[in-house]
Amino acid sequence: MKTLFFGLLSIDNDFEMNLSESNIRLIIPKGEFKDNILITGFHGIGMTGYIAISHLLNSLEAERIGYIQSDLLPPFVSVSGDRLLTPFEIYKWDRFVFIRSEFPPHRNEENAFATTIVNWTIEEEFKEAILIGGLDETFRNGPEELRIVPTKTYLKQNREIKDILLEKGLYVTGPLAIMLASFEVQEFPAIAILPYAVRTRADPRAAAVAIKRICDAYRLGIDISDLVRDAETIERELEERRMRTTQSYDGMYV
Where do runs of H (alpha helix) occur along the chain? Predict the structure, then answer.
């Protein structure tokens, strides 16, 4: 296991990097990531990215290979099956590497968190990055289920892409926006997949649209029927967990 302290230059196992001035630490095993595909998403509109990543990890039974730590780590842990679940974890399945954010990164570390992941992705020579977010469904004006925001390099390498670009005047925000901008500047192939989603609640149906788009692109056989069928149950469970998390700040839970 090696620890990457980007900007702090504290390195384990003779591995050395200094990519950005930040306090974000990637704790990952030595491995070969060349030509792998990074997939991640956050708690944006409809919690689309978070739900999609969680479903992908469970469906593929991906292996946890590392963690992300910081000075402003969310003060929560949980249990999944027989193991501890930490706020930010790195998983791998075949040539796909997933970053799961159980909680959003702290506002004061949002930029450093996103750029550290970008720099690590490029340094490790990943093939491309897929970012999953949500797009407010009130902006929908046609039959399409999603919009995309690709970097220039991604478009050059995928000229056959048929998805419709994000409309002029609309913006991507948060960690996804920072990552897209960094990937664009460094001429790395990356794309944001943005299904239309309900802004006011968790939207598993939007996550299902994103997963289907990924499955079609990479020929993955992932069942999304339960996301659609059990959407109301998933929405209710996520809302209950959000409320418990909020209440815990007041000392109501251990």
Answer: 48-60, 110-123, 152-157, 174-185, 204-218, 225-229, 231-248
Q: What is the pTM of this model?
A: 0.83
Cα(15)–Cα(51) distance, rounded to whole angstroms? 33
Q: Could you tell me the residue ranges of all domains in the chain?
A: 33-248
Q: Which token pair is 194?
A: 């943005």
Question: Structure tokens of 236?
Answer: 């209710």
What is the tally of helices (H) and strands (E) in the chain?
7, 12
Question: Which has the higher per-residue pLDDT, 51 or 243?
Answer: 51
Pairing of strands 25-28, 2-5: antiparallel
Q: What is the pLDDT of residue 5?
A: 34
DSSP secondary structure letter of residue 127:
S
Question: In the CATH scheme, what is the code of domain 33-248?
Answer: 3.40.50.10900
Structure tokens at 245: 């998390």
CA-to-CA distance for 21 and 23, rounded, in angstroms?
Answer: 7
**Strands, E assignment, the chain:** 2-5, 25-28, 37-41, 63-69, 78-80, 83-85, 88-93, 96-101, 128-132, 135-136, 146-150, 190-197
- Asked which of 44-58, 63-77, 171-185, 234-248 is least confident by mean pLDDT, the reply is 234-248
Q: Are 242 and 73 in contact (CB under 8 A)?
A: no
- Judged against a pLDDT cut of 70, whether residue 71 lies above it is answered with yes
- Can you tell me the distance from the alpha carbon of 52 to that of 91, in angstroms, rounded to the nearest whole number? 14
Q: Rounded to 10 degrees, what is the CA torsion of 22, 24, 25, 30?
A: -80
What does the pLDDT look like over 178-192, one tens digit per residue?
A: 999 999 999 999 999
- pLDDT of 241: 60
